[in-house]
Specification:
The chain is mostly helical. Helix content is about 80%, strand content about 0%. A two-stranded antiparallel sheet has the order 1-2. The C terminus is likely disordered.
Amino acid sequence: MPDCRAPASSSVATAADVAVAAPARPPWLGLAVLLLAGFVTIFDLFVVNVAIPSMQATLEASLSQVGLVVAGYELAFGVLLIAGGRLGDRHGRRRLFVVGMAGFALASALCGLAPDAGALIAARVLQGLAAALLFPQVYASIRVHFEGAAARRAFGLLGMTLGLAAIAGQVLGGWLVHADIGGLGWRTIFLINVPIGVLAIAMARLVPESRAPERPTLDWGGVALVSAGLGLWLVPLLEGPAHGWPAWMLVALVAGTGLLAMFARHQIRRRLCGEDPLVDMRLLCDRQFAIGGLLVLLVYSTSSSFFLCFALLVQSGLGLDPMTAGLLFAPCSVGFVLASLSAPRLVARFGPVALAVAAVVYAASLAWLVGQVHSAGGALSPAHLVPTLVVVGAAQGLIMTPLLNLVLGTVDAARAGMASGVISTLQQVGAAFGVAIVGMVFGAALSGAVGDDLRARYADAFVAGMACNVVAAFVAALLLRRLARSSGQGRETEPPAS
């Protein structure tokens, strides 16, 4: 499921961008290096799913710590994406590519060598920060160095690569954990990034250097405020239930709200002073864009949380090994990739209504999956879920990529770059908070379950956690129907081009 986690480009490259020693023809060998970087960042989003139960067992990690392993990467990735794109524009995209890849390889090594859950969480946050420096350079470099048919082919190869990364993250990741190479177990899913990173850095010279003609300013104060504010929300949501919601966690939630309010005022003040804000708050006052942003939060909140809970169900609850669990995940990703390839044609033919229908199918398929697990309980046979998993993945594929285009289409071209950065951040923030909220419900249901049947307890916890996703998916379907209708009316009232 590539695009459910691959952020939209947060840096808009234009024809005016400066290319240092621009090649006479598209740098196809350089594209291979960029695709390798895109592969590892998405691979590491998905590979953790099949390794979570093994990590939990070997590190004696709590469910909240497991949630932070997943959500810490996503939140760090999201909050630095806009700044990462601007750093590449300012200092050179190849240079930031090398810095980001070096940081990613180092953080991966720290993940693989982590002695306890706390060290793994810290290393995952560093890995997410490095990915946020690395990933925007992939999109921006392709936009700068490829044009016309070559650009379409390059972005097509990127989409295919991200799809393969999503599948490999589950199948190859499951095999790596199950094979227990050198007795390293789950650690190999991170350590494998080190030689890949070294190779990518050595080959980075094949990517021509480029930068924006004007050096954009960086708002590190804004980055600090939004990072601290979201972090003060995320940690209590994950840790609160396990600790009985002590007073300091409630204080943290209030403090996080205050910091986010300060961030909004800070962004408005920078704009009024003629400085570049991280987020132009006027975007969020645009009703259509605000609805679209809420849609992105809701839809992407259902992705990582689903895979986390499903991994815990089939491995910790039903006793499947990581390899079998990875193979069980694969049909969902295959359905996503195939549907995402056909989504542009469907939207071109039927318009935004195709997205609204796909959203209803997505919500209904999630509800059907929850119903299957609830009715079977401890007697659940995972193989019986495969057809439903294919439908869930296909419905996501029909929604997610066209959704980004629909939301970005609500703003004018002058604000497209800023809007793209905001949507990129909302993708990752939505995923992180989905893990926090659904994980909280899953953990509460698991600890409150009665009886000695472990399979039944995990099935009940999965049903409770996924009920949140079903509600989120149905709300998203209603909002998407409204946004699609407004978009259609906008096109009908728009005067024809001369």
